[in-house]
């Protein structure tokens, strides 16, 4: 049936014309294609690597195979080998791609390969410390959420923990100046959880994101220990200075600093690289903050929501 209508409506010729027009577009604008070049990192492979790392961090939690004291080592060896091989390749490709962007000649040089191998090994060596921090994040969630019935409930179902776990992985690679891959990881986490954490953000221990949807944490944000934030919180940039050509100047601190033991309630917006929220403060919902707040402060909106109230508080 469909073939009759294809012939009747001259679809083959029209398809050929459409493809020729698309090809002309591709040839005229190189930004959106990647052909005749060395392969770039594979998003699918990076997601597989992330899942492998999560299996190593939480052995037995997300795998179909039951683990015990006998097979756990073989499981970890298998997973670690797989992650190492895949991550080494993807990191090497990311460095090769970076050379390509800078118009530097490189056919997957020895430096790219060695960087891939050493960084993959460094990440695997970092897992014990990574797990220590994630244990503290789980405990912070359990302590901070009266609805949490168990640690396993948090591990299996809390999007905040998923986002924090992936961030802590991506942040290690970001600190090693790995191109592309940390951002691919963070945006995959964003698509999974609705929580947007740039891999450059520095986040302390005992961190808890409750609910999580709509949370945004910018690249140069610095967060201390024992911080809790709720859904819809933005830790963002206030303004972006430009150079003489009108281009945004990159590399400066643009996002706020949140000191230890701060709670930020839903919908709060805190902006600016010079903005510091002092330790032991409570930031109420829906406030807009572009200036620093002293330690031990309680910040809320007035009853008619026309101004902010700031007073000293005691946080236990």
Outline of this structure?
The protein has helices spanning 2-8, 11-28, 43-57, 72-101, 110-125, 127-144, 151-157, 159-175, 181-193; strands at residues 196-197, 202-203, 208-209, 216-217, 222-223, 228-229, 234-236, 257-258, 263-264, 269-271, 276-277, 282-283, 288-289, 297-301, 308-312. The protein has 316 residues and is of the alpha/beta class.
| Rg on CA atoms, Å | 24 Å
Strand content: 5-15%
CATH architecture of the largest domain: Orthogonal Bundle
Please, what is the average pLDDT? 91
Number of domains: 2
Indicate the CATH topology of the largest domain. serine acetyltransferase, domain 1
How are strands sequenced across the largest beta sheet?
3-6-9-12-14-15
Helix content: 40-55%
Total strands: 15
The name of the CATH superfamily of the largest domain reads serine acetyltransferase, domain 1
Task: Write the SSE topology.
Elements: H1 2-8, H2 11-28, H3 43-57, H4 72-101, H5 110-125, H6 127-144, H7 151-157, H8 159-175, H9 181-193, E1 196-197, E2 202-203, E3 208-209, E4 216-217, E5 222-223, E6 228-229, E7 234-236, E8 257-258, E9 263-264, E10 269-271, E11 276-277, E12 282-283, E13 288-289, E14 297-301, E15 308-312
Parallel strand pairs: 1-4, 2-5, 3-6, 4-7, 5-8, 6-9, 7-10, 8-11, 9-12, 10-13, 12-14
Antiparallel strand pairs: 14-15
Helix pairs in contact: 3-4, 3-9, 4-5, 6-8, 8-9
Defining traits:
316 residues; alpha/beta; serine acetyltransferase, domain 1; UDP N-Acetylglucosamine Acyltransferase, domain 1; 2 domains; six-stranded mixed sheet; five-stranded parallel sheet; 9 helices; 15 strands; 45% helix
């Amino acid at each position: 049936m469909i073939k009759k209508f294809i012939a009747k409506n001259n679809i083959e010729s029209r398809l050929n014309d459409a493809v020729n027009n698309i090809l002309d577009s591709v040839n005229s604008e190189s930004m959106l294609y990647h052909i005749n070049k060395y392969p770039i990192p594979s998003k699918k492979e990076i997601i597989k690597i992330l899942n492998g790392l999560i299996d190593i961090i939480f052995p037995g939690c997300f795998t179909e195979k039951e683990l015990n004291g006998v097979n756990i080592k073989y499981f970890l060896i298998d997973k670690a080998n797989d992650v190492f091989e895949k991550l080494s390749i993807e990191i090497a490709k990311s460095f090769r791609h970076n050379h390509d962007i800078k118009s530097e000649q490189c056919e997957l040089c020895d430096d790219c390969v060695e960087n891939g191998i050493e960084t993959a090994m460094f990440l695997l060596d970092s897992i014990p410390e990574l797990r220590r921090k994630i244990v503290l994040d789980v405990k912070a969630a359990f302590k901070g959420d009266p609805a949490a019935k168990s640690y396993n409930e948090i591990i299996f179902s809390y999007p905040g923990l998923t986002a924090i776990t992936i961030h802590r992985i991506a942040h290690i690679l970001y600190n090693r100046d790995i191109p592309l891959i940390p951002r691919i990881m963070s945006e995959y986490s964003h698509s999974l959880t609705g929580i947007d954490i740039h891999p450059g953000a520095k986040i302390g221990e005992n961190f808890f994101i409750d609910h999580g949807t709509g949370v945004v944490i910018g690249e140069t944000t610095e967060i201390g220990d024992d911080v809790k934030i709720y859904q819809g919180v933005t830790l963002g940039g206030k303004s972006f200075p430009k150079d003489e050509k009108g281009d945004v100047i990159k590399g400066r601190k643009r996002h706020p600093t949140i000191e230890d033991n701060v709670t930020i309630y839903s919908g709060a917006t805190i902006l600016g690289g010079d903005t510091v929220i002092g330790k032991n403060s409570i930031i109420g919902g829906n406030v807009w903050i572009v200036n620093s707040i002293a330690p031990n402060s309680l910040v809320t909106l007035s009853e008619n929501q026309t101004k902010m109230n700031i007073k000293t508080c005691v946080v236990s």
